């Protein structure tokens, strides 16, 4: 089996696939799988650009939209994790993973899948200590705060990965595991990136949760990106070792792509499948999900709560019975947003869309969609999908516009030098075909008390027009502004892994 590893994709899918095709022609080989280590930028349209944490001048549509719309097809099966520059509104539709386009699969916030006999685990996002212990409280439309915190790693997903006991062949993370520079050529790295010296010497470079998982899971390979440079390391364990490789971003003359030739024992049937152990862990830890903007500690030794969730064979067999089949097929992909139109303006993010792929996995395992729970707590709902002539699309039910209340228009008769009774010759018709003269009796009443026009707005727009609702909305909707969910009163802490 031959797999290609890409560092930061930054939306340049066309260029990456061109590189792969060039290598295949030059070397006479066939690449079976492409793995991207974050900053994938699955931007479908101009609206998605507003959900990506980059300065406006860097909000480029790039080329993913061509593969989403069907204009082009990915020539090789592509798997990726999220980084810190993503269309977060789209990835939040798929917390447990799913197809973002035909032949392009997102692992999820954290996840484990199998390709043939190759077991691949992934951890999306980057580490920030002040958000690590919090619940998954963010939802579109994002504030300046939640636009960034939404891709920060949370303790729940790391806790779930730590329950794995079966061997992991490939592990993916966007940022590097902390302390990884001690196992490679640190001197050469500092020659190329001298600004990293302070963080390396203070042991602040990298992710503490990833460091913990590195020594706990002991995968055969670990691939990362984020720092836009190539760096290799070899980490010894009591049994075996982990080969670490970080790669650059997709630019000319940069080391952003690596081809890995694996033994044929990993080939298997070369189909994509869910991992049974991971699905069982998801099912058994669903009660630990929190969507609150406060610190949420995971269970551990010394408490009276269960903290071991490594599944037994019986547990996995029950999960298999629930799922029926573990095969992940391209047919489950659906479009949940309009395709890219160059003339379309960038608008605010629409309400979250219910993705059938997430609905399927949640119903099968009896687990919760974090985004749906967030919305339910604030009285909001996810927009459903609709199917028209076997083409899946957004539910584009037209919004009923608020009708203007009709009323009789009455004006006093004008005074003219000719003393002509214009009210007898000119008529101003109302919907009831009455004339102005018929309404003169009501003129004083209508002039002194204008008829009130009461508009009825949808619930999600209520806060925009009624000041009385501002307090309720701002305290319940955790993603509309920085003050929407008050941050917990906690002292800065360092996570010791």
List the main descriptive attributes of the protein structure presented here.
single chain, 497 residues, alpha/beta, Purple Acid Phosphatase, chain A, domain 2, seven-stranded mixed sheet, six-stranded mixed sheet, 24% helix, globular, disordered C terminus, hydrolase
Fold blueprint:
Layout: E1 2-6, H1 13-27, E2 33-36, H2 46-49, H3 64-69, E3 77-80, H4 88-91, E4 98-101, E5 104-106, E6 110-115, E7 118-123, H5 146-149, H6 155-161, E8 170-173, H7 186-192, H8 197-201, H9 208-217, E9 221-224, E10 231-236, E11 241-246, E12 257-261, E13 272-274, H10 276-284, H11 313-323, H12 356-365, H13 370-377, E14 385-388, E15 391-394, H14 422-425, H15 443-448, H16 462-465, H17 470-476
Parallel strand pairs: 1-2, 2-3, 3-5, 7-8, 8-9, 9-11
Antiparallel strand pairs: 1-12, 4-5, 6-7, 6-13, 10-11, 14-15
Largest sheet: 7 strands, mixed
Q: In angstroms, what is the radius of gyration? A: 29 Å
Number of helical runs?
A: 17
- Poorly predicted spans: 386-392, 394-409, 416-497
When the domains are counted, the total is 1
State the CATH architecture: 4-Layer Sandwich
Strand order of the largest sheet: 10-11-9-8-7-6-13
Distance between the termini: 35 Å
Proportion in helices: 10-25%
Average pLDDT metric: 84
DSSP strand tally: 15
CA-based shape:
globular
CATH H-tier superfamily: Metallo-dependent phosphatases
- CATH class label: Alpha Beta
What percentage of amino acids are in beta strands?
5-15%
What structural class should be given to the helix and strand makeup? alpha/beta
């Amino acid at each position: 089996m031959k797999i290609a590893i890409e560092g930061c994709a930054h939306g340049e899918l066309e260029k990456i696939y061109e590189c792969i095709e060039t290598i295949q022609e030059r070397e006479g080989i066939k690449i079976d799988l492409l793995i991207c280590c974050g900053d994938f930028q699955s931007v479908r349209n101009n609206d998605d650009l507003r959900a990506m944490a980059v300065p406006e001048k860097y909000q480029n549509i790039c080329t993913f939209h061509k593969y989403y719309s069907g204009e082009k097809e990915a020539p090789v099966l592509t798997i990726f994790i999220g980084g810190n520059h993503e269309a977060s509104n789209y990835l939040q539709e798929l917390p447990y993973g799913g197809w973002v386009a035909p032949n392009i699969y997102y692992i999820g916030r954290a996840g484990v899948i199998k390709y043939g006999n190759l077991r691949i685990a992934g951890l999306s996002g980057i580490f920030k200590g002040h958000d690590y212990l919090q619940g998954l409280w963010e939802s579109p439309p994002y504030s300046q705060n939640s636009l960034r915190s939404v891709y920060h790693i949370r303790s729940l997903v790391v806790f779930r990965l730590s329950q794995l006991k079966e061997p992991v062949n490939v592990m993916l993370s966007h940022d590097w595991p902390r302390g990884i520079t001690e196992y490679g050529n640190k001197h050469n790295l500092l020659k190329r990136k001298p600004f990293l010296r302070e963080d390396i010497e203070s042991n602040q470079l990298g992710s503490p949760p990833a460091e913990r998982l590195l020594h706990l899971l002991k995968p055969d390979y670990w691939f990362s990106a984020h720092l836009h440079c190539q760096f290799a390391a070899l980490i010894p364990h009591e049994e075996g070792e982990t080969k670490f490789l970080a790669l650059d971003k997709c630019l000319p003359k940069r080391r952003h792509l690596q081809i890995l030739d694996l033994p044929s024992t990993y080939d298997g049937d070369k189909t994509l499948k869910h991992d049974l152990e991971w699905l069982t862990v998801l099912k058994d830890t669903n009660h630990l999900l929190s969507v609150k903007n406060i610190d949420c500690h995971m269970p551990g030794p010394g408490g009276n709560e269960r903290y071991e969730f490594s599944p037994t064979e019986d547990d996995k067999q029950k999960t298999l019975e629930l799922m029926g089949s573990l095969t992940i097929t391209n047919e489950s992909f659906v479009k949940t947003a309009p395709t890219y139109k160059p003339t379309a303006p960038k608008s605010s993010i629409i309400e979250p869309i219910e993705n059938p792929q997430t609905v399927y996995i949640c119903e099968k395992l009896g687990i919760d969609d974090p985004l749906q729970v967030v919305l339910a707590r604030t009285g909001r709902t996810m927009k459903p999908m609709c199917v028209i002539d076997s083409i899946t699309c957004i539910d584009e039910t037209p919004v009923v516009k608020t009708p203007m209340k009709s009323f009789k228009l009455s004006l006093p008769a004008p005074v003219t030098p000719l003393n002509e009774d214009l009210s007898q010759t000119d008529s101003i018709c109302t919907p009831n075909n009455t004339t102005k003269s018929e309404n003169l009796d009501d003129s004083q009443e209508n002039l002194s008390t204008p008829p009130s026009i009461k508009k009825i707005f949808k619930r999600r727009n209520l806060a925009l027009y009624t000041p009385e609702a501002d307090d309720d909305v701002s305290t319940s909707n955790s993603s509309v502004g920085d003050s929407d969910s008050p941050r917990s009163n906690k002292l800065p802490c360092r996570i010791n892994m």
